[in-house]
Amino acid sequence: MAEIPLFPLKTVLLPGNTLELKVFETRYLDMIATCMRENSPFGVVLIHQGDETAIDTDIYSVGTTAVINDWENRADGLLGITALGVERFEILSTHTQDDGLTFADSKILDEDSSHEMPEQFAYMLDLLDHVSAHEGRIRDDDQGFCAILYQLIYLLPLETALKQRLLEIPDCNDRALILHAELIRLGVIQYIKPEATQL
Q: Is a pLDDT exceeding 60 seen at residue 10?
């Protein structure tokens, strides 16, 4: 169990993916300064109800730890950072400081990254290559099954609530099944591999 500061947002950060943020509130500027100085993580969690600038927001209990891998002082006077998602975590309890910064007692949620991609989901590699090329990205050939799923979830225009649901699922195969069903619903699979709709 570890205590980490939380950055509640109206977006989902996934392990292995990045999120660009503009930081302007004092509580988060101080948090970022501490994380950079101590090379320590913070937690990104999706807001269930409330605003990003509020103190009493209702947040989900599963999020992703993040580290800062780039930053800049923007021309508009704000601090720009690029956060890299590392691991899923679960919030066990929270407490809020006088400055409005919330800390969580958390536990890292283990994930078996050694999973090989089952044959029925092999089409997801083709889909990821297609989407990555459209975004001007190159897929890492060394990515495992879980990482490929997270990359697809990150790049596809899925609803935020669905991304959160997929993040919360503990098993890669179960996560793939839910994503597969959504891709069928969206009509994506028939353009990649029509026979995959029969799985």
A: yes
